Amino acid sequence: MFSGGQQPKGMIGGGGQDGEDQEPNEIEELAKRLEAAKLSPEAAKVAERELKRLKKIHPAQAEYAVTRTYLETLAEIPWTVTTDDRLGPHTLPRARKQLDEDHYGLEKVKKRLLEYLAVLRLKQSVNEEVDKEIKKVEEELGAASAHSDTKEAEEAAEKAADATTALEEKIKANSAKVEILRSKRMVDKSPILLLVGPPGVGKTSLARSVATALGRKFHRISLGGVRDEAEIRGHRRTYVAAMPGLIVQGLKKVGVANPVVLLDEIDKIGGSNHHGDPSAAMLEVLDPEQNHNFVDHYINIPIDLSKVMFIATANSLDTIPAPLLDRMETIYIPGYTTLEKRHIAMQHLVPKQIRVNGLREEQVVFTEEVVGRIIESYTREAGVRNLEREIGSVLRGKAVEYADAKDAGHPEKYNPVLTVDDLERFLGIEKFEEEIAEKTSRPGIVTGLVAYSSGGNGSILFIEVADMPGSGRLQLTGKLGDVLKESVEVALTWVKANAYELGLTQNPGEDIMKGRSIHVHCPSGSIPKDGPSSGIAQAVAMVSLFSGRAVPPTMAMTGEISLRGRVTAVGGIKEKLIGALRAGVKIVLLPAQNRKDVKDLPQEVKDGLEIVHVEHIWEAIRFVWPDAEWPVDRKGVAVQSRL
Fold this sequence. Notes:
- Residues 120-173 form a coiled coil.
- The strands form 4 sheets. This protein has a 7-stranded mixed β-sheet with strand order 10-11-9-8-12-15-16. A 5-stranded parallel β-sheet has the order 2-3-6-1-7, with helices on both faces.
- It folds into 4 domains: 17-76; 83-331, 3-Layer(aba) Sandwich (Rossmann fold); 338-427, Helicase, Ruva Protein, domain 3 (Orthogonal Bundle), CATH 1.10.8.60; 445-642, Ribosomal Protein S5, domain 2.
- The chain is an alpha/beta fold.
- The chain has helices spanning 23-36, 41-56, 62-76, 91-102, 107-154, 157-183, 203-214, 230-233, 246-254, 278-285, 322-326, 338-356, 368-378, 385-407, 423-427, 482-497, 535-547, 573-583, 595-598, 603-608, 617-624, 631-635, and strands at 192-196, 218-222, 260-264, 294-295, 302-303, 309-314, 329-332, 445-451, 458-469, 474-477, 516-521, 555-557, 560-561, 567-568, 587-591, 610-614.
- It is 45% helix and 12% strand.
C-alpha cells in the first residue's frame, strides 16, 4: 500500500542529494510503520497521499518536519490494536474479588461494573457463534469458486455460460449471507460512567481498579482547569507546533483502542470563553452514538472511541452542563460512615502506613479502639485522606520510639501496643468533641440528629427551648439557617394551634404564648446548622416545655413536620443513626417514609437501636409519654394523622 522508494531524478525532495543516504531510509521506515499500524481505510488514503508529498519535500524545509510528525502520529495511534478482555467462566468472580480487595463498600458501582462485564461476555459468545457461521459460509464460497475454475476448463463452450451464471448466483447468495451474518455481530458500546462524591472516597482509585479487573490498560486525563477547546480536540496542523488533543495523546500513550480512560474532575472543566468551550468539546467524546467517529482537529480523520471505557469523576453536579451530564450514567458515591472507615483503616490504611514508615506488622499493634478514636476525635471528613495522614503521624511517632530504643541497645523497652492515651502524645489534643447523650433530662430539652454536610458523619444535636415573660416573641440562636428557622416556626404554629388538645390551655380560644416569649437554641453555636429535619424534635421540645414533662435522655428523633402535623422523610438516615449509636442513644423516632433507608443500615446499628416509625406528630407524642393522658383522647377528637 505504502511505497517508500526514491522519487524520480531531478525532483528536489526527500530523495535529493542532501539526504540521499538517510532520508529515503527514514521514509521507508515510516512507510513500514504505517503499514503495520493497520490504519482505517480513510486514514490509509490520507497517509498514502501525505507520504507522496513527503518524498517531494526537501528535508531542510519546515513542511517536511510537520508532515513527518503528522505521519508518525498516525502510525502511533492504535487504530485496531485492542487488549483482549479476560472473559471466561471465572471472569465475574475474579472481577468481584479484585474490586472487593481494592475497595470496601461501594456496592452500586461494583454492581454496575459486573453487569457490564456480564453483558460483554454474552456479546462475545454471540459474536463467536456468528464468526463460526461466517467462516463456514466463506469456506463454501471458496470451494464454489475453485469448482467453477475446474468446470470452465472441462465443460463445453455452450454449457460454460449457463454453469458460470449458476455459480455466480450461488456465490452472490453466499456473499449476501455473509453480510447478513456480519450484521448480526453485536457491537460493544462501553458505558460512560460518572462517579460523583466528596473528596477522598476513592473515585480515582476505583477507576484504576476497574481497569485491573477488566485486564485493560489505564490512562488518566485531568480535566481540572482545562480552559481551551484545543486541549480536547487538538490544534489544526496549520498552527506552529500543533499537537493532537488529550484524548488522542492518551490513546497513543496506552497503545490500544480499548483502554479505561479516567476523566478526572470533570466538574472543574472550564466553560465558554474566547478559546472555545472545552465542556462542549466533550459532548462528542462522551456520546456513545457519535464517538465512533470522533474527529481530532490535528488528525482530521475519524477515530473510533466506542471501545474506550470512559469513567468521569466529580465532586458536585452543579457545575457540569446539563447536555454533558445527560450523556453520562451517574453513580453517587456517598461519604464513608464511621463503621466503614474503621474497616478501611484496619484492612488497608494501617498495613499500608506500617510498610511506608519502615516498620513490620508485629512492631505496632493498632487496635480498633484506637482507630475509632482517631476517626471520631481527629478527623471529620467524608473520605479517608485525613484519616490516613493521622495514622501515618502516629506510626512515625512509633518509628521514632522504636529507633531510639534500638539505637540505645534496649529494644525490649519498646512497647508495640498503641493505646488511646498515646494519641494525644502523637497527634496533640483532640480536634473534635463528640456529643454524648445526657444521663438526665429536664423539660424543654430534646435530642435531635444531624448529618454533617461534609458527608459520612452524623451526630446528636441538643435542642433547648426556654420560656420567659414577654409578648409572644420567638428568639432563635445557634447559627441557624433559614430553613431551620422556618422549621421552628412551623413547629411553634402547630403547638399553638393544638394547645387545647395537648392540654396546655384551659379553653380552645386561649393563646399559649400570651404573656410569654420563648428562646430556641442549638448548642455548638459556631457551627452553621440548616435543614428541616429537626421539625419533630422542635415540636416535642415545645410540648415538653409547656407541659413540664421531660423527654427520656436516651431517646432521639428526626423528621420534618408540616402544619398539619404530618412527619415527612428526611435524608442522611444512615449517618445520623450511626452517630446516635455512638453517642449512647437507645431509641430513635424516624418518619415512616424512611423505612426503606433503615434496610440499608449496618447490622450493628439495627441491633443497637430501637427504631420507631411515626407518620404524625401525635404518634411521636404518645410514644414519648405513653403514660400521659391528653384531653384529645378523653373527648375522642379524631387524630389528624390521616389528613
